[in-house]
Amino acid sequence: MALAITLGDPAGIGAEIVLKALAHFPPEALGQFFISGSRSLLEDTYGWLSQRGQAVVHPALLQVWDHPLISNVRPGYPSSATGAMSFAYLETAIAAAKTGTVAGIVTAPISKALWHAAGYDYSGQTEVLACHTGGSEVGMLFLGRSPQTHWVLTTLLATTHIPLSQVPHHLTPALLTQKLELLVSFLQHHRGLAQPRIAVAGLNPHSGEQGHLGREEVDWLIPWLTRAQQQYPHVEIVGPVPPDTLWIGAAHAWWGTPSQHPSYDAYLALYHDQGLIPVKMLAFHDAVNTTIGLPFIRTSPDHGTAFDIAGQGIADPRSLLAAIHWAQELTTTGKIGFPAHTCLRGV
Length: 347
Ligand SMILES: NC(=O)C1=CN([C@@H]2O[C@H](COP(=O)(O)OP(=O)(O)OC[C@H]3O[C@@H](n4cnc5c(N)ncnc54)[C@H](O)[C@@H]3O)[C@@H](O)[C@H]2O)C=CC1
Ligand SMILES: NCC(=O)COP(=O)(O)O
Known about the structure:
Blueprint: E1 3-6, H1 14-22, E2 33-37, H2 39-51, E3 63-66, H3 80-98, E4 104-107, H4 112-117, H5 125-132, E5 139-145, E6 152-157, H6 167-170, H7 173-190, E7 197-201, H8 216-231, E8 236-241, H9 243-246, H10 248-255, E9 266-269, H11 272-283, E10 287-292, E11 297-301, H12 318-333, H13 340-343
The chain binds 1,4-dihydronicotinamide adenine dinucleotide and the ligand NCC(=O)COP(=O)(O)O.
The site of the ligand NCC(=O)COP(=O)(O)O has 7 residues, from helix 5.
């Protein structure tokens, strides 16, 4: 099935990692990809990368949905114009996915601050995807397959791009129920896990120490877990696990080292950095971000625009390559991207 790949912010490392990642595919396989970006950006990037002897695909081999650049772009010097370009790339890819031209989209990183500078009031690509597809019930899920053991670290964030101070207000039993539904559907339909084991992190140090270090666990999280377990008798739901120890077993499963700490099929983290610190420590170049709950597949590298290294030729394409491979895998494991009862409501 065809995939669209966006170039992300033109002043970031997007074009570089796309050209490097696609060099891993034989020329005859490139026909399945449509690049939503700027052809001149690909050509410039190809020019300076190939001069340095880097393995990159020639842009002439690529099908490009061309968005002519609206201003000169210098790697590492983003602006509201580059923010606007990255938004346009994404919109074209989403439109293609909605009409079925492609089965999924793989997005290179954008800068949220520059979207705001360009007048687009979204806190990330995930939120644009949710809005364009008519529903807000999506999940930000990170997947990383260990190169050593092939164990898959699967982490869903209950809350995403909000200030830390607002996390306790956003976390509610209803929100967690919604996220758990998405996660269970994903594990069953896309990962083939009929009876998954899911760990839910606590919010406070030591999961609140029986209310002495924070009351969220005793006031509603533990009662919610009891109800969730009754609602999903085929799923083992463990928690709230003190967040400082929850990922020890994951690290051992990732490296293949023996441990008495359990590992789980999936982790539900309550806020952005709680989930992403372990993901990026273990799997920075292997993990990918996927939006679940959409009627099509969307994956992205786990990293950002890396403006600090743009134009230097040192950007690592592995996370983007993993995002492409995961998109290919997920389009074949899910019949229509996601089961209708969770994703098609409102679309
Ligand atoms: N999917 C997306 O669109 C994402 C976008 N972002 C955005 O990216 C911007 C920059 O975010 P930061 O927190 O600075 O994170 P970042 O991931 O861009 O950079 C963090 C560090 O990792 C390095 N790095 C990142 N990707 C790399 C790669 N492929 N190869 C080698 N080194 C790499 C960077 O040079 C930097 O030192 C922000 O505006 C953020 O919102 C961040 C994460 C995901
Ligand atoms: N840290 C994850 C992240 O920033 C993902 O952003 P986006 O894919 O929603 O743009």
